[in-house]
Amino acid sequence: MDKFIIKGGRRLTGEVTISGAKNAAVAILPAVILSDEPCIIENVPSISDVNISLRILEEMGAVVESPANNVYRIDPTHIDKYCVPYETARKMRASYYFLGALLGKFNKARVSMPGGCPLGDRPIDQHLKAFSALGAEYTLSQGMIDLKADSLKGSQIFFDVVSVGATMNALLASVKASGLTVIENAAKEPHIVDLANFLNSMGANIMGAGTDVIKVRGVEHLHGANYAVIPDQIEAGTFMIAAAATQGDVIIKNIIPKHLESITKKLEKIGVNIELYDDSLRVWTEGPLVKANVKTTPHPGFPTDMQPQIAALLTLAEGTSIVTEGVWEQRFRYVDELRRMGADITVNGKVALIEGTGKLMGAPVKACDLRAGAALIIAGLAAQGITEIEDIYHIERGYDCMEGKLKELGADIEKVSIPDKLDDKNDKKAVV
Ligand code: EPU
């Protein structure tokens, strides 16, 4: 098991380049299954969730090669299995994208239900609603989801909640369905648009991605494509906050400023300076940070995947801040760890009250999920003394070379291996 050891108190300065977006890549890689020819995907982040997606593709019979760093050539033409077993599916929540992709291509799929979850209840009823609307039947037994259809037919799909995963799966399953599919109350995140753009580059006919009504006119064949994944807005936001928390001055490269609007506006309210360029930005802080209220909502609102990081920043700001989680049932589990570092935070249901103390102290802490881990890194960088973060496998699921990038910016952070404790020996179930 690895952990990070951070000596806090160093200002971050210099330049950092953002990697491809995790939540786009984990949908685009399964989408390659729909193609009748090989595809080349560029700007793929080096993270463990991507490794799992590639392993699943290989296990199904795809030929995966990496001609250059962060570039994969995937030939799906030899895929002859339609099943993602429990052992692989439980390691990554996003394995549910294989349901939509396999169903869309072969009219059948068998994928294990994704395992337990650290963010509260994570149903997939809306995914199943979309598959049913397109004409598939599903059965759930022995922890597996089986989907099959004689043929898929375009239909009207109305989501009862705005769901990124269900919208992606509806796209994957409908691109080759006959006729017109209309997806209403769709999610609008940049990774939805990225998946739609990739599918369109293979010959799909998708209109309206990025709005709440998406129309898909089914096509018979999808051809190979060469496509680059968008930059990761959450990684960019995390580095912005790390710079702000250390009173640093950092240029963040390979970003799409439009995707960062809600984060940029909120940070400016907190007293962080931001200058936007075409595909990069400068973020710096001079002087004290001030309180702010933050409520997470689906895009274009403030992203839930930035909630723990901004809460860590607000512990350093003057005044009382209120952070309200509007997407997940349980996204405050990291608060106990921040309290160990001296943060004054009270949680009541989906609302956290943060009394800014202006400083944090290093402590041994544990990452309980991916973004919680990012928040602890930010806190550790800003804290006085040494912070040791355990369970960093969560962080490595979604951040490409986090410690290497932070070191380049002047952080004192090391990754060290520690022997497994007896009760840690069971393989961890990471599923955000
Ligand atoms: N929901 C339902 N039924 C469904 C699906 C979702 O009730 O069938 C509810 C969920 O319980 C939740 C809300 O709808 O309250 C939104 O869930 P959504 O389906 O949008 O989440 P997701 O697709 O499972 C993705 C990201 C998450 C991110 C959320 C929200 C991926 C692989 N994961 O999850 O990313 O928090 O969207 O933006 O794209 C992360 O990267 O740290 C992460 C957790």
Describe this structure in words.
With 432 residues, this protein is α/β, with parallel strands linked by helices. It has two domains: 2-19 and 231-429, Enolpyruvate transferase domain (UDP-n-acetylglucosamine1-carboxyvinyl-transferase, Chain, Alpha-beta prism); 22-228, UDP-n-acetylglucosamine1-carboxyvinyl-transferase, Chain, CATH 3.65.10. Helices cover 30% and strands 25% of the residues. The chain is built from 14 helices and 24 strands. The chain has helices spanning 22-31, 48-60, 86-89, 97-106, 125-133, 164-174, 190-201, 233-245, 261-270, 307-314, 335-340, 370-382, 393-396, 402-408; strands spanning 2-7, 13-17, 39-42, 63-68, 71-75, 83-84, 108-112, 137-141, 144-148, 156-158, 180-184, 205-207, 213-217, 226-228, 249-253, 273-276, 280-284, 293-295, 320-324, 344-348, 351-355, 364-366, 386-390, 412-417. Strands 22-23-1-24 form a four-stranded mixed sheet. A four-stranded mixed sheet has the order 2-15-17-16. The chain has a four-stranded mixed sheet with strand order 4-5-3-14, covered by helices on one side. Helix 10 (307-314) links the parallel strand 18 (293-295) and strand 19 (320-324). Helix 1 packs parallel to helix 4. The longest helix is centred in the first third of the chain and has 13 residues, at 48-60. The protein is globular and about 60 Å long. The structure holds uridine-diphosphate-2(N-acetylglucosaminyl) butyric acid.
